[in-house]
Amino acid sequence: MRTVLSRCFLSALSVVLISTAVTAQSYIVNSPSGEISAVIELRDGYPIYSLLFRGTAIIGESRMGLVMGDGTDLSSGLTVLKDAKASVDRAWTQPWGEMREVKERYNELRLELASNTSSETVLVITFRVFDDGVGFRYELPDSGDFIVTDDRSEFVLMSDYRSWWIPAFENNRYEYLYTESSASDLRSVHTPLTMETPDGVFLSIHEAALTDWASMALLNMGNGILECDLVPWSDGTKVRGETPVVSPWRTISVSGDAAGLLTSTIILNLNEPSKIEDTSWIRPGRYVGIWWGMHIGKYSWGSGNKHGATTANTKMYIDFAARHGFDGVLVEGWNLGWDDNWFANGSFFQFTIPHPDFDMEEISRYGAEKGIYLIGHHETGADIDNYERQLDAAFEYYERLGVKAVKTGYVGHRTNEFEWHHGQYMVNHYRKVVEKAAEHHIMIIVHEPIKATGIRRTWPNMIAREGARGQEYNAWSGDGGNLPDHTTILPFTRMLGGPFDFTPGIFDLYFNEAGRPNNRINTTLAKQLALYVVIYSPMQMAADLPKNYEGHPAFEFIKEVPSDWEETLALHAAIGDYVTIARKERGGEDWFIGSITDEDGRTLEASLSFLDEGREYEAYIYADAPGADWKSRPYMIDIRKEKVDYSSILKLELAPGGGQAVRITPATSSPE
Known about the structure:
single chain, 672 residues, Beta-galactosidase, Chain A, domain 5, TIM Barrel, eight-stranded antiparallel sheet, disordered N terminus
């Protein structure tokens, strides 16, 4: 009944758009453009909000509030003590990212709420309304220790929205293929949860600035009601600590088309500015590594005849990186602990003791001589106690050796056997690692992470993370790997939170030496190139074995594509079908385009009107050749050069499971 009444109320409100005849405890906050409106009420003591886009309701009347461990219900029996409005219109510069400058424009409402039996503030709710969405959060004033047992935040849908989602509270963390279904088929799901209304409006529910709090899943309560489902501690409580404290922002990104989601900055803008004053040491880069060989069975993480992390093998990778202009080399399996059952017992790992056949001192010296830095690796086996005992020594060790980035890992169903990867315990652990790394001028690439919520703005050394099914699933997954549409969904779901360490660039698409006939790369070769533009990461890996790159003409694109951008444009966007992204190199004049499709071939047209008028360019095109197909003819690639300018329309002919990668450079500076 509440959903029906909500829709009737909002339909009437949408007709008059924004009525000025509101009650004393009813507020309307518009976005700077006026396209998005948040309606906030205190009705019979219950805080309620709703959301309109271009005058039409997209989120119906939804409850808010927290329930505390002492039985206090901060979702009812409330009155407004004070309200305050504010507006912000500014811009800030990212040290690295999809674009250099980020515009931050919003209107804000802050409500201080008291209970009916008290004159003191018990809860603060703040709303910020941007042109690309809405965020709201809770603040608990200074009153001592607290426990949160429930978050009553709701998101009431106006109809059965089309949805893209992965399940929450499963053993494999975030690493699932996405399901497309009606919202009524949802269960408990992770965010970002992306949806489309029948009118073609796109929205994505997520959270920003997740700090010292449990992460939010969404539970389908029926009747179109999605409720916040906090990931609990092993004792069942959700959040605990000391006040004053603020919750993460609950966010709803909104766009009139799917492309608008791809360039939304609301998640970043709801995070605090950088706590690192001098960010000059935080540098995006490109790397190769002793990694893929383990996944296809060529190398082992543990010692023995197949050990990948040997001094000689690492030097070979360093030579390859130096020869082709890469920045770093990742080495996994270098330290003690891999020979034991690390999956079941992460306490075996030692983070300052190499295997006998891995001379860390010599490798660091050799890499520095060649201008290549080592990317370290800390796999914890989800034993957090063991890792934290060694954390100081581990980062001091790496800093002394000139290691500039560390890839961390947390393979396991639970951490310390009992805690979810996504509860408050692990949120705080991940932050501890990032802050400790910053003390030692080290960047972090975290696998099996907490989801991205824009913390990279506050701690920009949190440079990349996993948090979805990456390339390695193609090597060994029992279901045959990632389907061709997987990467056409990721930009609209997982990547709305931030960069993704997907590890593209596999050229040996069948990797026959692995002896796994049911596994392969489920793309064309051209699509592997296009992923460098579509799947953004500031630390981008050329993931294949060096021998598969040597002498291959398509390798030129990987050598040229940067990992830091001045500007990003979404040229085509259809979730689960296709996507085309154009990005301009930061500090340069070159543009790069990546276009990918699902299992269906298609032809798209890309306007190059973003180029400078009156200037001639050359486009270096890496396209699926006629007849290419991801299933039977994935290697067929057409590499060519064309003259283009701002009036050109570039034809993107994408094979089934295919893609196209393009580098566009001013003709005067093009190589011969």
